[in-house]
Amino acid sequence: MRESGAHCPLCRGNVTRRERACPERALDLENIMRKFSGSCRCCAKQIKFYRMRHHYKSCKKYQDEYGVSSIIPNFQISQD
Protein backbone atom coordinates (compact mmCIF):
# COMPACT_ATOMS: atom_id res chain seq x y z
CA MET A 1 0.00 0.00 0.00
CA ARG A 2 1.35 3.42 -0.96
CA GLU A 3 1.75 6.20 1.57
CA SER A 4 0.28 9.58 0.79
CA GLY A 5 2.40 12.73 0.63
CA ALA A 6 5.43 13.87 -1.29
CA HIS A 7 8.38 11.54 -1.82
CA CYS A 8 11.93 12.18 -2.98
CA PRO A 9 12.30 10.97 -6.60
CA LEU A 10 15.85 9.80 -5.87
CA CYS A 11 15.57 7.89 -2.58
CA ARG A 12 11.74 7.60 -2.33
CA GLY A 13 11.91 8.92 1.24
CA ASN A 14 9.24 11.20 2.66
CA VAL A 15 9.65 14.92 2.00
CA THR A 16 8.79 17.16 4.94
CA ARG A 17 6.74 20.34 4.68
CA ARG A 18 9.83 22.42 5.42
CA GLU A 19 11.74 20.76 2.56
CA ARG A 20 8.84 21.38 0.17
CA ALA A 21 8.45 25.02 1.26
CA CYS A 22 12.15 25.88 1.08
CA PRO A 23 14.12 23.29 -0.92
CA GLU A 24 17.90 23.35 -0.77
CA ARG A 25 19.60 24.07 -4.05
CA ALA A 26 22.30 21.69 -5.20
CA LEU A 27 24.95 24.40 -5.28
CA ASP A 28 27.78 21.92 -5.73
CA LEU A 29 26.15 20.65 -8.92
CA GLU A 30 25.41 24.18 -10.12
CA ASN A 31 29.06 25.18 -9.65
CA ILE A 32 30.27 22.13 -11.58
CA MET A 33 27.91 22.96 -14.45
CA ARG A 34 29.25 26.54 -14.52
CA LYS A 35 32.83 25.27 -14.93
CA PHE A 36 32.35 22.83 -17.79
CA SER A 37 31.07 23.27 -21.31
CA GLY A 38 29.91 21.01 -24.08
CA SER A 39 28.91 21.37 -27.67
CA CYS A 40 25.38 21.80 -28.96
CA ARG A 41 24.01 18.61 -30.55
CA CYS A 42 23.17 20.42 -33.76
CA CYS A 43 25.31 23.51 -34.32
CA ALA A 44 28.43 22.31 -32.41
CA LYS A 45 28.75 25.66 -30.62
CA GLN A 46 30.55 25.41 -27.24
CA ILE A 47 28.11 26.29 -24.43
CA LYS A 48 28.50 26.15 -20.64
CA PHE A 49 26.28 23.34 -19.33
CA TYR A 50 24.27 25.65 -17.10
CA ARG A 51 23.25 27.67 -20.21
CA MET A 52 22.54 24.69 -22.49
CA ARG A 53 18.72 24.67 -22.03
CA HIS A 54 18.59 28.35 -22.87
CA HIS A 55 20.71 27.75 -25.97
CA TYR A 56 18.45 24.93 -27.18
CA LYS A 57 15.44 27.24 -26.94
CA SER A 58 17.08 29.65 -29.37
CA CYS A 59 19.14 27.30 -31.59
CA LYS A 60 17.44 27.16 -35.00
CA LYS A 61 19.14 23.89 -36.03
CA TYR A 62 18.12 22.20 -32.76
CA GLN A 63 14.52 23.34 -33.13
CA ASP A 64 14.39 22.14 -36.74
CA GLU A 65 15.59 18.66 -35.74
CA TYR A 66 13.87 18.12 -32.39
CA GLY A 67 10.99 20.56 -32.59
CA VAL A 68 10.08 23.37 -30.26
CA SER A 69 9.74 22.36 -26.61
CA SER A 70 6.17 22.03 -25.39
CA ILE A 71 7.20 23.94 -22.25
CA ILE A 72 7.62 27.14 -24.24
CA PRO A 73 4.23 28.83 -24.53
CA ASN A 74 2.99 29.42 -28.05
CA PHE A 75 1.93 33.06 -28.10
CA GLN A 76 -0.25 34.40 -30.87
CA ILE A 77 0.40 37.94 -32.06
CA SER A 78 -2.67 39.77 -33.25
CA GLN A 79 -2.51 41.69 -36.53
CA ASP A 80 -4.24 44.87 -35.29
UniProtKB/TrEMBL annotation:
<dbReference type="InterPro" id="IPR013083">
    <property type="entry name" value="Znf_RING/FYVE/PHD"/>
</dbReference>
<comment type="subunit">
    <text>Interacts with NLK. Interacts with XRCC5/Ku80. Interacts with RBBP8/CtIP.</text>
</comment>
<dbReference type="InterPro" id="IPR052498">
    <property type="entry name" value="E3_ubiq-protein_ligase_RNF138"/>
</dbReference>
<dbReference type="Pfam" id="PF18574">
    <property type="entry name" value="zf_C2HC_14"/>
</dbReference>
<keyword id="KW-0227">DNA damage</keyword>
<keyword id="KW-0832">Ubl conjugation</keyword>
<feature type="domain" description="C2HC RNF-type">
    <location>
        <begin position="40"/>
        <end position="59"/>
    </location>
</feature>
<keyword id="KW-0808">Transferase</keyword>
<dbReference type="InterPro" id="IPR034734">
    <property type="entry name" value="ZF_C2HC_RNF"/>
</dbReference>
<protein>
    <recommendedName>
        <fullName>E3 ubiquitin-protein ligase RNF138</fullName>
        <ecNumber>2.3.2.27</ecNumber>
    </recommendedName>
</protein>
<dbReference type="GO" id="GO:0035861">
    <property type="term" value="C:site of double-strand break"/>
</dbReference>
<comment type="pathway">
    <text>Protein modification; protein ubiquitination.</text>
</comment>
<dbReference type="GO" id="GO:0016567">
    <property type="term" value="P:protein ubiquitination"/>
</dbReference>
<keyword id="KW-0158">Chromosome</keyword>
<keyword id="KW-0238">DNA-binding</keyword>
<keyword id="KW-0234">DNA repair</keyword>
<dbReference type="GO" id="GO:0008270">
    <property type="term" value="F:zinc ion binding"/>
</dbReference>
<keyword id="KW-0879">Wnt signaling pathway</keyword>
<keyword id="KW-0833">Ubl conjugation pathway</keyword>
<keyword id="KW-0863">Zinc-finger</keyword>
<dbReference type="GO" id="GO:0005634">
    <property type="term" value="C:nucleus"/>
</dbReference>
<keyword id="KW-0862">Zinc</keyword>
<dbReference type="GO" id="GO:0016055">
    <property type="term" value="P:Wnt signaling pathway"/>
</dbReference>
<keyword id="KW-0479">Metal-binding</keyword>
<dbReference type="GO" id="GO:0061630">
    <property type="term" value="F:ubiquitin protein ligase activity"/>
</dbReference>
<dbReference type="GO" id="GO:0010792">
    <property type="term" value="P:DNA double-strand break processing involved in repair via single-strand annealing"/>
</dbReference>
<dbReference type="GO" id="GO:0000724">
    <property type="term" value="P:double-strand break repair via homologous recombination"/>
</dbReference>
<dbReference type="GO" id="GO:0003697">
    <property type="term" value="F:single-stranded DNA binding"/>
</dbReference>
